[in-house]
Amino acid sequence: MEQKQNMNFKIILLISVFSILLVSCSVDPEIREIGNSGNNNQQISFTFPTGFPVPVYSFQNNEVNITRFLLGKRLFKDPIFSRDNTISCESCHLQAASFAHLNHDLSHGIDDQLGLRNAPVLVNLAWMPNMMWDGGVNHIEVQPFAPITNPVEMDETLENVIYKLNNHPEYPQLFQEAYGISTITTQLMARALVQFLGNLISADSKYDRVVRLQDGTQFTAGEQRGFIFFNANCQNCHTPPLFTNNGFANNGLYLNYQDEGRKHITSLNEDLALFKIPTLRNIEVSFPYMHNGKMTSLNAVVEHYRSGIKNHINLHPSLKRNNQPGVPMTDAEKEDLIAFLRTLTDRNFLTNPLFR
Ligand code: HEC
Ligand code: HEC
User: Fold this and answer.
1) Would you state the pLDDT for residue 13?
2) Does 98 sit in the ligand 2 pocket, CB within 6 Å?
3) pLDDT tens, position by position, 73-124
4) What is the pLDDT of residue 41?
5) N or C: which end of the chain has fewer CB atoms below 10 A?
6) What is the pLDDT of residue 31?
7) Apex 353 CA angle, 182 and 188, nearest 5
8) Confidence at residue 36, expressed as pLDDT on a 0 to 100 scale
9) Which of the ligands is closest to the CA of residue 288?
């Protein structure tokens, strides 16, 4: 079943590549233009989209170039990081799902073990001060160590990964070409991965084109109404242009949580059951939703906000009306809101050949 879906995605990907080639001239970040050639002689630089704030990771000590980026991409796709060389980062973070784990509620790792949480999308990470659903990682160069050493994800030691990389027939040479150093350390490995991770920039959705007044792109009437509803009820947490305010909140999924969320990191009671506010970019393709992947459709998510919110002690006050949990909306408003959420899909990102 899953394989069949993957096949379909591949076909869609192929078709989309041709359409991107046709429209590439009008596409925004520099990166995309390079992406369409797939040619090593091309230049690449970290350029951030108009309207985005200053990034938290600016590649100051890790200047971007195409050799480093391609090395990072190769590492991302290489199962060398897992104990039995079967699981790569890509196994759980697929481009077609905006680098989330397509169709899995909890991510499957080594020996097909289930993780505790749903794999989030990987977009605009250079702007993200806290990673993981509980914010347990606060630097992108440290992030890859978590899945590598997690016993249900890749279950490998850093020591052994470094050993495997240094004794690999090609990696020492590739690091030499990229960084002028052939002895691979954990820091160098992390920096190379970040060349790929940090350049997964998504800012070319219909929404972006509308706000940039690009090519006369306009919302439909329903999307426009959904946008207004979103601004009134959702944007305080899912704040444009990143569609997250980078904070933590409880959005009322349960009265009793199995996972204590942010409290796991801070030990504070007021952080019990708070989770990182996720970006909504590419939300249409990154199902299932929420930290535990328990919701499979946008319809279910929006219905949750309308009628499913539980009055948890730490429920965020902006998700109550007259002290009652829930965001009231008519059926028509619900439909418009979903239509707006779909405008956050960035097809060029999902099919960018540079990431493949
Ligand atoms: C077995 C599946 C799995 C594998 C393999 C995996 N990840 Fe993840 N990834 C996850 C899950 C699940 C989370 C969320 C974990 C949490 O919040 O506790 C995550 C979170 C992340 C995040 C943070 C995103 C955010 O918004 O907070 C980054 C970045 C990331 N992974 C990169 C990687 C890299 C790089 C690799 C390879 C070295 C990798 N992942 C391998 C499942 C996986
Ligand atoms: C008080 C802050 C807050 C507000 C307001 C809010 N959300 Fe959320 N949203 C969250 C948090 C936190 C999560 C993740 C919760 C979890 O997994 O435990 C989330 C998750 C989501 C997800 C799933 C994302 C994913 O990748 O799994 C969607 C979709 C979503 N919200 C849409 C909306 C919409 C639409 C509205 C307005 C009706 C809204 N949110 C209002 C905080 C908020």
Assistant:
1) 37
2) no
3) 999 999 999 999 999 999 999 999 999 987 677 777 777 777 778 999 999 9
4) 57
5) N
6) 42
7) 20
8) 36
9) 2
Q: Give residue 26 CA to ligand 1 midpoint distance, Å.
A: 32
Residues written for the chain: 356
Burial of 189 (0-12, 13-18, 19+ CB in 10 A): buried
Rounded to whole angstroms, the Cα distance separating 185 from 192 reads 11
For 127, list phi and psi in degrees, rounded to 5. -105, 10
Residue appearing with tokens 């169709």: 103
Distances (CA, A) of 200 to 81, 150, 166, 178, 349: 20, 23, 27, 19, 8
Long-range contacts of 175-183 (CB under 8 A, 24+ apart): 175/71, 177/67, 177/71, 178/65, 178/67, 178/68, 178/71, 179/68
Tens digit of each residue's pLDDT (9 = 90 or more) over 149-194: 998 899 999 999 999 999 999 999 999 999 999 999 999 999 999 9
Share of the chain above pLDDT 90, in %: 79
| Displacement of CA 323 from its chain's centroid (Å) | 33
- Give, for ligand 1, the residue of 76, 87, 92 to mutate: max count of ligand atoms closer than 8 Å to Cβ: 92
Give residue 10's pLDDT band: very low, low, confident or very high (50, 70, 90). very low
Per the CB < 8 A criterion, the answer to whether 194 and 69 are in contact is no
Paired tokens of 215: 């090519």
pLDDT digits (tens, 9 = 90+) for 306-325: 999 999 999 999 999 999 99
**Pocket probe mutation, ligand 2, options 251, 284, 307, 309, max atoms within 8 Å of Cβ:** 251
Residue whose Cα lies nearest atom 40 of ligand 2: it is 234
From CA 138, how far away is CA 123, in angstroms rounded?
16
Whether the Cβ atoms of residue 294 and residue 133 lie closer than 8 Å to each other: no
Contact between residue 196 and residue 76 where contact means Cβ atoms under 8 Å apart = yes
Sign of CA dihedral 213, 214, 215, 220: negative
